[in-house]
UniProtKB/TrEMBL annotation:
<feature type="binding site" description="axial binding residue">
    <location>
        <position position="340"/>
    </location>
    <ligand>
        <name>heme</name>
    </ligand>
</feature>
<dbReference type="InterPro" id="IPR002226">
    <property type="entry name" value="Catalase_haem_BS"/>
</dbReference>
<feature type="region of interest" description="Disordered">
    <location>
        <begin position="1"/>
        <end position="29"/>
    </location>
</feature>
<dbReference type="GO" id="GO:0005737">
    <property type="term" value="C:cytoplasm"/>
</dbReference>
<comment type="similarity">
    <text>Belongs to the catalase family.</text>
</comment>
<dbReference type="Pfam" id="PF06628">
    <property type="entry name" value="Catalase-rel"/>
</dbReference>
<keyword id="KW-0479">Metal-binding</keyword>
<dbReference type="InterPro" id="IPR011614">
    <property type="entry name" value="Catalase_core"/>
</dbReference>
<keyword id="KW-0408">Iron</keyword>
<dbReference type="InterPro" id="IPR024711">
    <property type="entry name" value="Catalase_clade1/3"/>
</dbReference>
<dbReference type="InterPro" id="IPR018028">
    <property type="entry name" value="Catalase"/>
</dbReference>
<dbReference type="GO" id="GO:0046872">
    <property type="term" value="F:metal ion binding"/>
</dbReference>
<dbReference type="InterPro" id="IPR020835">
    <property type="entry name" value="Catalase_sf"/>
</dbReference>
<dbReference type="GO" id="GO:0042542">
    <property type="term" value="P:response to hydrogen peroxide"/>
</dbReference>
<dbReference type="InterPro" id="IPR010582">
    <property type="entry name" value="Catalase_immune_responsive"/>
</dbReference>
<dbReference type="InterPro" id="IPR024708">
    <property type="entry name" value="Catalase_AS"/>
</dbReference>
<dbReference type="GO" id="GO:0020037">
    <property type="term" value="F:heme binding"/>
</dbReference>
């Protein structure tokens, strides 16, 4: 009668169930008896099947795989999983759209989440990035407002281009990412045909305690491909799970998608003088200044067995570092260090790290105890405080943070540079004529329903400053004049 062999139906307390097709009733017509504990348990558990969806990045698809080091980068970082060519580390990835709800269509114009969890020998390292190297804003304090504009209008409960373009036009630091988003990269053909980026600048520390600034680029071996708007719109109606299905099928068929991981490395001192603030997440570093260095290869070779257990309960955090990798002062990253684990405590629970998908293969050893849904032995009878005289777990010298200097006055201030135009313009000028056409179409199509001309004109000025042709073409598409002061 063991329930391990899966032959016998049981209640959640393990007792065998006698009848799972008919409620227990008084006579054949009922009423139903409250004594039917199997029925009560079944209905009650069903009512609790949903956990809150992620407030952003709700719709996603995940896969397991491995990461293999292909190039020795140990002179830049002591991170254990990168310390030997050929070393393989198991990993899990979750791809997602940002703004839509859990059941929303895959083929919408939106950045794509690219969240990677490396199960290293010294704890989980999470790289929670997007398929774009930059972001719309550069200070976490603006994130809830920004996301409100991407979600639904409080009254109509509709997506509303008014609030989107109002916010963007009043937050010109978004221009670079807005250009990225409305170009081909905003509508990937599949999840396999896009690159991934760590987005922020991170700190790498080597064995000697030397420090480097680093940016991560995952380059797709499948190539980068986009969908046309009309095809994407059609797919959104016919198969809203198109990307999810494509990823699952590719892996199921043994057609394993792979990415090469590269880094850009900036010497510590360069950050003081580089032409762009290297901690401003709305900017990229030129590849001429900091060429890409190969690190390894990520291969996705196993589908999840259970979507809820592995994908829905996956909990990534930009604060999950391992020795050799640390935070940078990027203000967005700093806010994210708090936000993610806080989201998981609310969404999944205080003990979310104990779930199989989140559990480090290296094990955990600390003095945290108790809490809802503690699923392990809770430390058994071992000592639960420190310092102690009972051989409890000890700190590791090599895990100490690399000390760094901080200077300046505490204040709420902006980044130094208000140049939001050069890099956005460079991106525009890099695009082929065809892609420029598609970009202008996408921007014009998205801006057309905006009711206030004031918002449209304010945004056109930004496009114009990035590149006069860009501004003029959007203005023409909207049937508006380029504001006079921009006609240099
Ligand atoms: Fe975020 C989820 C990526 C800024 C707050 N974010 C989330 C996911 C990705 C990103 C890929 C989904 C993870 C998964 O698959 O489970 N987010 C980014 C990037 C950002 C960024 C690349 C900027 C460069 N995010 C950002 C900021 C905040 C958040 C500034 C808040 C201060 N993000 C969240 C969150 C989410 C999240 C609310 C929703 C649910 C979750 O974390 O697990 O905490």
């Amino acid at each position: 009668m063991s329930n391990k062999n899966n032959k016998h139906l049981t209640t959640s307390s393990g007792a065998p169930v006698g009848d799972n097709q008919h409620s227990l009733t008084a006579g054949s017509r009922g009423p139903t008896l409250i004594q039917d504990v199997n029925l009560l348990e079944k209905l009650a558990h069903f009512n609790r099947e949903r956990i809150p969806e992620r407030v952003v990045h709700a719709k996603g698809a995940g896969a397991h795989g491995y990461f293999e080091v292909t190039n020795d980068v140990s002179k830049y970082t002591k991170a254990n999983f990168l310390n030997e060519v050929g070393k393989k580390t198991p990993m899990f990835i979750r791809f997602s759209t940002v703004a839509g709800e859990l059941g929303s269509a895959d083929t919408v114009r939106d950045p794509r989440g690219f969240a990677v969890k490396f199960y290293t020998e010294v704890g989980n390292y999470d790289l929670v990035g997007n398929n774009t190297p930059i972001f719309f804003i550069r200070d976490a304090i603006k994130f809830p407002d920004f996301i409100h504009t991407q979600k639904r209008d409080p009254r109509t409960h509709l997506k509303d281009p008014n609030m989107v373009w109002d916010f963007w036009s009043l937050s010109p630091e978004s221009l670079h990412q807005v250009t990225y988003l409305h170009g081909d990269r905003g509508l990937p053909a599949t999840l396999r045909h896009m690159n991934g980026y760590g987005s922020h600048t991170f700190k790498w520390v080597n064995e000697k305690g030397e420090v480097f600034w680093v940016k991560y680029h995952f380059i797709s071996e499948q190539g980068v491909k986009a969908l046309d708007d009309p095809v994407a719109n059609k797919l959104a109606g016919e198969n809203p799970d198109y990307h999810t299905e494509d990823l699952f099928n590719a892996i199921e068929e043994g057609n394993y998608p792979a990415w090469r991981l590269y880094v850009q490395i900036m010497p510590y001192e360069d950050a003081k003088t580089y032409k762009w603030d290297p901690f401003d997440v709305t900017k990229v570093w030129s590849k001429d200044d900091y060429p890409r260095i190969e690190v390894g290869r990520m291969v996705l070779n196993r589908n999840p067995e259970n979507y809820f257990a592995e994908v829905e309960q996956a909990a990534f955090s930009p604060g999950h570092f391992v020795p050799g990798i640390e935070a940078s002062p990027d203000k967005m990253l700093q806010g994210r260090l708090f936000a993610y684990s806080d989201a998981h405590r609310y969404r999944v629970g205080a003990n979310h790290e104990q779930l199989p998908i989140n559990r480090p293969i290296s094990g955990t050893n600390n003095y945290q105890r108790d809490g809802y849904m503690r699923a392990d032995d809770n430390g058994g009878g071992s000592v639960n405080y420190e310092p102690n005289s009972y051989d409890g777990p000890k700190e590791s010298e090599e895990a100490r943070i690399n000390p760094f200097e901080v200077t300046g006055q505490a204040d709420s201030v902006n980044y130094d540079s208000e140049d939001h135009y050069t890099q956005a313009g460079d991106l525009y000028r890099l695009m082929s004529d065809d892609e420029k056409d598609r970009l202008i179409n996408a921007v014009v199509g998205h801006m057309k329903p905006v009711k206030k001309d004031e918002i449209k004109l304010r945004q056109i000025k930004h496009f114009y400053k990035a590149d006069p042709e860009y501004g003029r073409r959007v203005a023409e598409g909207l049937g508006l004049e380029v504001p006079e002061e921009q006609e240099v």
